[in-house]
Write a structure and sequence with these properties.
about 70% helix, globular, membrane, BaxI_1-like
């Protein structure tokens, strides 16, 4: 499989190595659905655990994961707003810290084990929903309406990039893949450097609401958006190589990591713009 900047999709087993055997390759996001039902492939036996994954599998699993994140996010936002109003900011901060830590552990386990898991994907979605929801609740108290703007902005970018990929307006070539991976690595290094230097009182101007920080956020949002192209392409290849349907959970996990990153950056950008 082609490389991707999303660590969730690195070094995945392919087709038969993943446990797929007798049903032949499926058809992906960008392929015609010809022939018989089942995305152009003979139907697998009912209930077969190793039937090839399809577009529907990826869409459904991603939708479920996103739904879980939205539910926990809304609940966490309402709770956080109540806690802040009651001057219990420390409690909110502790919950956010714990949820980030749990999410990091879950993501690392998924990435290094390279095995699909519905429960772990949903658990990751739930704790990330708690973190983003609590953070959004705090932002909403300061910038009224920012939550809806961030949600709509994230959904808009996701849909736009899906359309771009599906229509072939931008082809995921090896050259583009390398560019996106390099750009992603670059902004991650800059963010880590900014965080470390901030601990020593050094301000790089990347996260202080200045014009430079607005430009930086726009660049990060653009790179995160292009990462969706690699995520779609990787899921597409998983489908076409006939990986078992359970791997749709792994594709959903990969897409969720990019969605979380994009939403967080859009929320940050909106706060900068409302400060001006």
């Amino acid at each position: 499989m082609r490389s991707t900047s999303n660590p969730a999709f690195r070094n995945l087993p392919t087709g038969r190595a993943a446990g797929y055997g007798q049903y032949g390759p499926s058809v992906g996001f960008n392929q015609p659905q010809g022939g018989v039902p089942g995305y152009g492939m003979p139907p697998a036996p009912s209930g077969a655990a190793d039937r090839p994954m399809t577009v529907d599998d990826v869409v459904i699993k991603t939708g479920i994961s996103l739904g879980v994140a939205l539910v926990t996010g809304v609940l966490a936002a309402v709770w956080a707003m109540g806690q802040v109003s009651a001057d219990n900011v420390g409690v909110v901060g502790a919950v956010m810290g714990v949820s980030v830590l749990i999410g990091l552990v879950l993501s690392l386990v998924m990435i290094f084990k390279q095995k699909p898991s519905g429960p772990m994907t949903l658990a990751y979605s739930a704790v990330e929903g708690v973190f983003l929801g609590a953070l959004t609740g705090i932002f909403e108290l300061v910038y009224h309406g920012i939550a809806l703007q961030a949600i709509l902005g994230t959904a808009g970018v996701f849909i736009a990039m899906l359309v771009v990929y599906k229509t072939g307006a931008v082809k995921v070539t090896p050259k583009l893949t390398k560019w996106i991976i390099g750009a992603t690595a670059g902004v991650v290094i800059l963010m880590l450097a900014n965080l470390v230097l901030a601990l020593f009182g050094v301000n790089m101007g990347l996260r202080d609401g200045s014009t430079l920080s607005i430009v930086f956020s726009l660049v990060v949002i653009g790179i995160a958006a292009f990462n969706f192209l690699l995520d779609f392409d990787m899921a597409d290849r998983m489908i076409r190589e006939g990986m078992p349907s359970k791997w749709a959970w792994f594709a959903a996990f990969g897409l969720m990591t990019t969605l979380v990153w994009l939403y967080l950056e859009i929320l940050r950008l909106l706060s900068y713009l409302q400060n001006d």
